[in-house]
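re: ur question from yesterday

yeah so i grabbed the chain u mentioned. its 304 aa long if i counted rite. heres the sequnce exactly as i have it in my notes:
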Amino acid sequence: MANTGRIVAGAIVPHLPHLVYAESPPQNEPRSEGGWEVLRWGCQRFRKSVLAKKPDVLLVQSPYWLTHVGHHVLGLSRMEGFSVDPFFPHLFRFGYDVTIDAELSHLIADEGRKEGLMMKVMKNPDFTLDSASLASAYLVNPAFDIPIVVLSSNHTCSRLSSQAAQEEMRKLGVATRRAVEISGRRAVLLAGNSLSFRHFTKEPDIPEDMSQERIFDHNQYLWDMEVLKMLREGRTRELVDCLPDFLAAAQARAGAFAWMLSALDFPRYPAEVHAYGSIIGTGNAVVEWDHERHSIPLAAGGGR
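ran it thru and got these structure tokens back, copy pasting raw so excuse formatting
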């Protein structure tokens, strides 16, 4: 193919529904008085950066679309419906109408099988998009005028060990990179992922009351800062090696993290941290890898 596709950017973006709720978009029923401004402003800065690249597709790896038999991708060209967050239904009741890049979804499934992964293309017209994938996509492109691809979070390997789960996601990242190259698309990867994930079990009467918002404990904060330091120094391989320790200490979920870094072939250039803040005690960040600007060649191999 003359016009080989490429990943032009990747990012860690929040997936919890609070930031969407805080903006009170017309698609979301609950109304808010604001809140979480630092994180929302960071998303706006990243949004401006990534939309200037004119991507053809946004790929989202969602921690809320849990699958226990293989990795799933959306295979319908359009999805319309109403999504309610399972944990915060009072914050997220969201109507959506989105275009799916089903061709790229099938390519990811094909390339995943070549990596020995169990892949499934989801074609159920009654399927409801999860709140996390919608929240991450909204924060980057609230107009929803760019097609998306959503990948599920496969929890089978995590039952064995964190190391097995990270290796599974590394293979999915390799498959994603190859599929993007074959497709000819200009793609942006969105890892819907918190950092530390131990959170409060009771929220204030007014959810957007920022006087009540803070990181759960100091140990989580220290872990978050160490992770961000590694990312700002381009030490992504070192970070992947210590992810199991981070996951255990900070009660984090990082499947999307490993997927994205693998698809980017473990960038050695500094990431840009647009924002860091807390959502109900969890550590969240908006972190960008401007892959196009750094002109890192995409290897055809496994990124080792």
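noticed a couple things. The chain has one domain: 6-294. also Strands lie at 6-13, 57-67, 71-74, 78-84, 93-99, 119-122, 148-154, 186-192, 272-279, 282-289.
anyway ttyl
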